[in-house]
Amino acid sequence: MFEYILSLLTITVILVLLAQSYNLSFGLTGLLNLGHIIFYGIGAYTAAILNTKFGVGFFENLILAILITGGFATFFGLLCLRLSGHYLAIATLGAAMITSVVANNWMSLTNGPLGIRGIENPIVFGYHFDSALSIFSLYFIIVSFCLFLLYKIFHSPYGRILRAIKDDELAAISVGKNVFSAKIWSLILSASFTGIAGVLYAHYRLFLDPSIFALPEIIFAILIVVVGGRGNFWGCILSVLFLQFISEIPRFFGFPDEIVGATRNILFASLLIAVMFWKPNGLFDKQLKKTLEKNKK
Amino acid sequence: MWDSIYKLTLVIGRLIFPITTFILIMIFGLEIFSFLETKATIIPQLLWNGLVSGALIALVSLGLTLIYSIAGFIQFAHGELVALGAYSFMVFHKWLNWEILPASGGALFFVILVGLLLEKFFFRPVSQKDSMIPLVISIGLSMGIQSIILIIFGANILTMSNNFSKSHSFFNNTILATYPQILTVALSIFLMISLILFLKHSKIGKSIRAVSSNRAVAETFGINVNKSLQWIFGIGALMAGIAGICLGFEQNLEPLMGVHILIKAFAAIILGSIGSIRGAIFGAFLIGVSENLLVGLGIIPSGFSVAIPFIILILMLLIKPEGLLGKRFESLRQ
Amino acid sequence: MKKLLIFLVAPFLLWGCEENISNTDNNPETIKIGGIAPLSGDGATVGLMIQNVTNLAIETINNDGGINGKNIEILWEDGKCNPGDSSRSTQKLVNIDKVTAILGGVCSGETLGAAPITEKKKVILLSSASSSPEITSAGDFVFRTSPSDNSQGSILADYANKNFKKVGMITEQTDYSIGIASTFKEHFTGEIVEENYLPTESDFKTRITKLKNENIEGVLLIPQSPAKFEILIRQLQEQNWDKPILSNEIVTNTEVLKKFSDFFVKVSYVGAQFIVPDSENLNTFIDSYTTKFGEVPIYTNYVATTIDAVNMLAKALKEVESNDTEKIRDALYNIQNYEGFSGNISFDKNGDINITHSLFSFDGEKLVSLDEK
After folding, report:
1. pLDDT at A45
2. Which of C202, C207, C258, C261 to substitute to test the interface with B, most B CBs within 10 Å?
3. How much is the CA Rg of chain B, to the nearest whole Å?
4. Do C196 and C117 share a structural domain?
5. What are the residue ranges in chain A where pLDDT is below 50?
6. Number of domains, chain C
C-alpha cells in the first residue's frame, strides 16, 4: 500500500511541475499553446535516448533537456507568437502531431512504437535512487526547487508584465513594454521546466513510447490549469491533487470495466465546462486567498 | 533583441527560403520532370484521391471558418458533429433499415438539432466573454460527446455497408472511382457554391456578413446577432453531418473519426487565412491533394502522412504568416 | 521559508517508516494472483474474452481442490493495451495486493510495461497472448504461452522467398505489427516496398495506388486488428487489386475471409496462423464457456494458451507449496513436455513456449494448411 501511494505521489509530483510550467505560458501569459505536451515528450525522449545509448547520467540529462526544449520553444515562439492566439493554438497542435509522427517513424533514434526500454533510475553522486521512497524524495526536492523558481517568476515584475499581456495586450504595448520578448521568454521558460518534468518521467517510468504525445494528455493539462485558475500558482497545485484524486477513485470501487475510461472523461468534460461557465477564474480562486491571508495573520 | 531575431527569421522565410527553392528547382528541374514522367500513369488517380479527401476536409472547414468569423473562436466540438452525422445515419440506415434518403434526412436533422442546442446552451451564454472561454468549453464538449459515442457504440471500428462499393474506370482507365466518391465531390462542390451565393445574395447571408465584419455596428443597425449565430451553427452542422455520412461510406466509423478530420480542417483554415470562406476551400483542397501526391509519388514516406498538413502549415507560417489568401498582417490584430 | 523547509524535510521523515511496513498480511486460505488485460478500449474484445477464460479455468481448479487445499483468487486490473496504464496497474497489484504471480498482459505493450516492475519485485509474469519478440528478453520472471511474432515474420519471409522477388508491405505502426515487419525484413531476401500507417488512419487508397505502380508480385498486410484488415481489403478491392495477399495471424476468425471469399480466391491468400489442435478437452471447455457467458469465444487459439497458462502456473504452485517466487520460477522452467490444450509444450530458457505459427491458405470455405499439401 505504502509503495503504491508513493508511486502515485511521484507521478503527481511530476504532474505538478508539468501543470505549473504550463500555467506559466497558458495561464499567466494567456498563450493558448495546445502543443505543450511536445516539450514534455521531447524532454523524456532526450533523457531516454541519451541514457540508453550513451549512458548519460541524470543531472546531465536535466541540463541537456532544458537546452533542447528551450531551443524548440524559441523556434516555435519566433514562428507563431506574432500571430493571434488561435494561430498559435493550431500551429502548436500541429507541432505536437508532427513530433508524435516523427517519434513513431524515426526507428533508429526513438525505436518507434516499440518504445525505449532499459532506462536507468537516477544515479546522483554514485547513489542509486532505486527504491520508491528515495525516488520520490529526490523528485520532491527537485520539483520543490523548480516550483520555488516558478513562484519567484510568477511574482516578479516580469510576471506582472505577463499578467498585463493576458489582460490587455494593447495596453501593455502602449506603456512601452516589449510584449514580444516577454511572450517568447515565457514560452521558453515554460518549455524548459516542462522538459525537466519529462526527464523525471523517463527516469521514473523506465519505458517510453510515442503515446506520451497523445491528445488526451494535452486536454488533461488544460483541464488542470483551468480548474486551478489560469495564472493562479497555488490553485494549480491544488487542482493537480484534486484531479489525481478523482481519477484514481474508480479504481477502488467496482465500476463496470468497459466504461470506466469513458465515464471519467465525461466527468472531466463536465467539470471543464462547468468551471468555464461559473468560475472562469478557477475553483480555488477566492477561498484560497482568504485562507492564505488568515495564515499570514 | 528578439525583435531583430524575428526580423531575421522573417527575411529568411520571405526571401531566402523561396529563392533557394527556386534555384534548386532550376538545377534539378530536368530530373524532377523525368521523375514525374515515370509516375505519370498514377498521377490522375492520386489527384482524384486528393480531390475526394479535399472535398471532405472542405465540408468540415467551411463550418469551422464561418463560426470563427462570427463567434470569434475555434469550435473544437465541430468534429464531433461529423461523427454524430455518421453514427446517426448508421443507426437509421443499418439498424432501422431506412432507405438512404430518409436516413440521411433523419441524420442531418439530428445533427442540426445538436448544433443548434450546443449554440443555445453552451456558446451563446459566453459569447461576449474572452474568446478563450468558448474555446475551452468546446474542447470539453468534444471530449464529452466522444465519450458518449464510445459508451453507446463501443470502441470497435464499424462499417456503413456490408459490401464494398464497386469502382468504375474513367478517362482511359487512368482513374478508378466509386459512386460514393463521385457523389461526395459533387455534393461538396454544390454546397460550396450555394453557400457562397447564399452569403452574397440572401438577406440572412448579408446580415451574417455584416455581423462578421463588425458585430457592434451591425447590432446598432438592428441586425439580430443571435439569429445570425443560429444560422451559422445550423449551416456548419449541416455540412459537418454531410461530411460525416460521406466519410462513413468512404472509410469507416469510429468514435475518433471526427477528431481526425477536424485536425486536417484546422490546418486548412489557417492555411487559407482564418475566417475566409474562399481560403478555407482553397486550403482544404491544397491539403487533400498535396497529402495524396506527396505520399503517392514517394516523396514523403507514407508513415508521415498524418503530419503532412502541418508540415505545409509550418512552411507557410515561415513564408507567409498571414495565410495564403490573407492580406498582409490582417490577422495580427484579432 | 520555514514552511518550505518542513516540506523539504518531510519525505526524509517518511523514509524511516518504510521498514515498518512488512508483507505479513497474506491470507493463508487463498493464493492471490493478479490479472492484467485490456478491459476497456481498443483491445477489449480480446481482453474480456481472456478474462472470462482465465476466471473459468481458475474456477475449475478451485472446484478440483485448489492448490493443495488453498483456493486461487485472481484480482483483475485494466491495462488498456498500453505500457503506461499497465505499469500503474502492476504497481497496485504488486505493492498493495502483494500477488505472487500475474497473468497477463494481453497486448505486448502491457506485458512490456509490467515487466520492469515484476522483475524488480521478483513476481512471476505469465502472458498468454503477448507476442512481441522483445518479451523474450524482458526478464527472468517473464513467461508466455503464446508464440513470439518472430515465427510469424520468418515463415512468411520463407514463403515469400520461394515465390516472390519484390513485395509490397503495409504495416500499422504499433509495436505488434512493427515487430512482425522487422522480422520479415530480416529474413526476406528480395526487394520490399514499405508503406506504414498510424493506427488513427483509415484511408489507404493512395498507398495502394502507389503499390500498384511498383511492379510488385504480392502484398503483405500487417494490421493490428481484424477491423483494419477488413478496411484494407475493401479498399484493395475498390482499386481492383489482383496480386496475391499475405497477412499476419489477424484473420484467425474466417469471418472477413468468407465475406469477400470471391476476392480472396481470385487473388490467392496466404496467412501465418497459429491454430491449436482440435481436442476433446478444448471443445468441452468452449461449450462450458458458451453456456456460462452466452457467446462463443472468437479466438480459439488464445483460449487454449490461456488455459495452459493457468494450468501450468497451478502446477508450479502445487509443486512449490510456498510463496517463494524464485522456486516457482524454477518449477515453471522445469515443466517439460506438458500435455496442454495447445499441444505438447515446455518453456525454453527465455520463458518462451515451444510452439510456432504455420502457413495457411484459403479455399473459399475454410483455412487449409500449406504444410499438408
Report:
1. 93
2. C202
3. 21
4. no
5. none
6. 2
